[in-house]
Please model this.
Amino acid sequence: MAGRLAAAPGVLFVMFLLVVLFAVLRPVFLSLPNLIDIGLQSAILLIIAIPQTMIILSEGIDISSGAVLSLCGVVLAMVLVAGGPVHLAFLAALATAVGFGAFNGALICLVGMPAFVVTLGSLGMAEGIAEILTDGNVVVGLPNGFEAFYSAKPLGVPVPILIAALVYLVAHVILYHTRFGTYVFAIGGNREALMLSGVPARWYHIGIYALGGGFIAIASLLLTARMNSGHPTVAIGMEFDAIAAVALGGTSFERGQGWLLGTLLGVLAIGILRNGLDLLMVPSSLQGVSVGILVIVTMLIDRRGARVS
Amino acid sequence: MSASASAPSRTVSGPAWGPDVLHAVYRLAAVLLLSLVLSFFSHAFLSWGNILNVLRQASLLFLIASGLTLVILTAGLDLSVGANLGLSAGVAAVVMHATGSALLGSFTALTCGAVIGLANGIMVARLRIPSFIATYGMLWVCSGITYYFMGGGAIYGFPAGFRALGTGYLFRVPIPIYVMVAFLAAGTLITHRTTFGQDIFAIGANAVAARLSGIPVRGRLVAVYAISGAMAGFAAIIYLARVDSAEAGIGEPLLLPAVAAVLIGGTSLFGGMGGLFGTMTGALLLTLVLNGMNLLTIDANWQPFATGVIVLLALLIDTITRRHSERRA
Amino acid sequence: MEPAETTAGQAARGANAGPTSPLLELAGISKRFPGVRALEGVSLEIRAGEVHIVVGENGAGKSTLMKILYGAHHADEGTIRFQDRPVTIASPADARRLGIAVIFQEFSLVPFLSAAENIFLGREFRGPIPGTVDRRRAIREARTLLRSLGFDLDPTIPVHRLGVAEQQLVEIAKALSQKARILVMDEPTAALSERECAHLFRIVRRLRDEGVAIVYITHRLMEVMVLGDRITVLRDGRKVAELTPKETTPDDLVRLMVGRPVKAAFERRARFQPGEVALEIRNLRAPSGLEDINLTVHAREIVGLAGLVGAGRTELARAIFGADPISAGEVRVFGRPAEETPSECVRQGIALIPEKRKEEGLALIRSVQDNLLMSALWRLFPRGWLRPRTAEAAARDMVDRLRVATPSLARPVRVLSGGTQQKVVVGKWLSAGCRLFLFDEPTRGIDVGAKAEIFRLIEDLAERGAAVLLISSEFSEIVQVADRTYVMYDGRITGHLTAAELSEEALLRLAVSHE
Model:
């Protein structure tokens, strides 16, 4: 645990600064409704940042998750609009996401192609399919109950936050209490060693990407409910925030070093940043720039910290 | 140790050609073959207008992809080239509209592109951020800034002289093609006939060995990313000249085709192998495929999908050939 | 020096000794690679409760043999019998099933997993819910295992934070947890301190007494005499002897390993009058682990830098070359302060021939010509413009001078043999106009003939006025080639020997302790 804490200072330090900064500039920042809003905005990002964490821990990366998320939203919406029941729609989205995940995984793990360009290619493919399916339009006309599901508040906690918390817990168990999770670290840290230990590492490696599909499908459920429509390009770019969150949290792109809690902190940091910038009326186009700068600053802090120790 | 009686060693031919020439011939043959096939499927293909159109498109794609080729030769990636073009084009358009000067606008585009490239280079070479992360972040930075100052509107109407760059002809051949040939020639000279070029190949083949051989790796990397950015800026000029308008979002979709052109052209993503001639044939092949899809009235929405598939296929071939040759080592 | 084994140990062994049939028997094993005969008709008997040491020079076939034992390679000819039954070891899984565990030189540990997780990697204990692991049990069992090896290590620490010796213990614990009956250890003491070596030997002996068969691969003759029950000597892929320590001496072993009296392998033609000061280091300290280094090399001198693996010699060479940063002290090259990056150092006339030639010295996919000119382009073509014919001529000149065995200049260097590749690495620097050469293990992994050529080349360089710093772990080489030698241990210079004082024994003494 101590080793992991040493990686924390960057993101915690930065979060603290941001909170103080925004609280001073816009006191409404610290109000409860606003804080809940941050949680709501962060929920979907957390759900897709979690599989990204596992992928990056295994020395991979996935830049297609935003496009695949949008595609899943479209698929979900189309099935619902066509009158299909929710579980069928979800299954369709799940099949799509897991399909893309397995596809990515197969090319990366079985053939050995570099993860970045593989997911760049599948990003194009996913985006293309979404455009073809919708002909560029937004899918509307979802059944009434669906949107209500997003704004429900069982036990006073909004559904998105509940689901995100649940997903996080499940991910924590998977990563830290199952063989699969151990192998995630092993594949990133020393894949050879894992194979020499007799483990069919390739299949676990593909599994990491396929599992990610499951998370994306859940996120698409929330996303489509929130927007009450299926938009082919809505989540394009969200993978950038997800990768940024993982990097902010201190997970490294090599050697299987990192932690899930760091990603949660990174997601919150980004949520705080975007929320604060919104309050300051900074247009969303510049918010991406700020996220990028945040990541660079945090990485530099962590690197200085590592050099000192 | 096998005895070699004072080995009179001989190369097949000079160092820059040889097997490379053979591969270049194969690629040109592929282009011609594809053209032949397309002409069967569509009568409109062989019209002079269409061929010139294809060449013009390919030229623009080549220009963007040329700097990217150099970066990929060093086993790096510059994912910001598309967004870079978009930003440079936007800034240049604003300047041209405000001052009416095409010269100033062009200069702005080049500078903007080069500065972005320089920033990439510094992140990769000095801050040691992996190139795909650094340039991916830069992609979003450029994109964001472009959307910020362009908003949803478009700028159009540029000076006529300027437009000639993109739409004009010289001896019945569109000017962009001359530009492409000029840069192809210049670029090939740089990669094969300068120490800079040889350093680039060495860095891509083995960056550690290159450094320990006295090659100033960091300096070369910064230069290579700066060139890539500058080429994106230059391509922005040609783009503006042809399309005569600028708006946010024109650049991002160009990344995937640019990467495809480089990969199809045989430049290996793993570094150390490839060249600009390949990228040119790659640009031609990709443009032919997309052109063919247009002529066959396939829904334009399929194009990003098709490009994605092509990238993956080209990468598949690259990975398999590279792994195969590595196993023989 | 190693304490002799206790009488109790001897007695236990006496009880186990006697006519036992071998646990694992290799007969007539041959393995060929393109262009190289790695093993020819090697037979080996591995017995339970015995430490069987395999010695040989680099390239003798030790690692190939080991790889066949654990299933990474398949023998082209020969049979393997386990408890008198013929078996095939086609994969690491097969080896594991037979109870063969291997401890490699480069450890196969996952850096950011804990020791416990590493020990039970692939064989995790099942937790209450299907799919989960029982971490607490793994930690408990790991702690017990590590204690039995004499170390009270916290099994929850991620292994990247452990020292080399501790990591090795984790590896051994991992093998033990697999109930290994045959433990293969590949150069296990390469990076250990004297105390850690002693501890390792205790563990090896205890395992042997408990009936484990140990195959111990090394080139350190002291260990062979002290630890071995049975010794197999390999040379050029063949088994040339099988003995017990009582039947032989270190000198005999050397003779068997080398094939001829060591002295005849290479002899200096002449020693030269030292010229100006080429390299002067004062009070150097570096974050890479160097402390208080003071050293001088003159032109026309071949100065050796001896020591064991991990002594800091490569780090020193890299610091001189600008590849690693320096925190204090002075380095002066030909009277001027040394530059701080490799590219500037090259332009000052310094050359570094790195230890790992494939990873750090060559661009394998590039041609012979490209590799030969990599360091010299700036000098041959100062204005940046390449002239193909000049380049080709320069490369050809180097090929002729060094007699590089290649059919053409355009071949990628990866197809060349190890010795030829090393010549390319050296040749790379000859056209760069360097006057200070830092050789780091230049003859590692090369056959004897090529070694002699490299040494002759080094001598030539010195004769023509260059200054040479020669790093080598082979003390015999240093004794033959160097004019005088510094010895390093643990990041410091522990001594300096002139040609008269130079002997393998003296070197070893300085290389293993501070005093």
Observations:
- Residues 1-5 of chain A have pLDDT under 50 and may be disordered.
- Residues 191 and 201 of chain A are 7 Å apart (CA to CA).
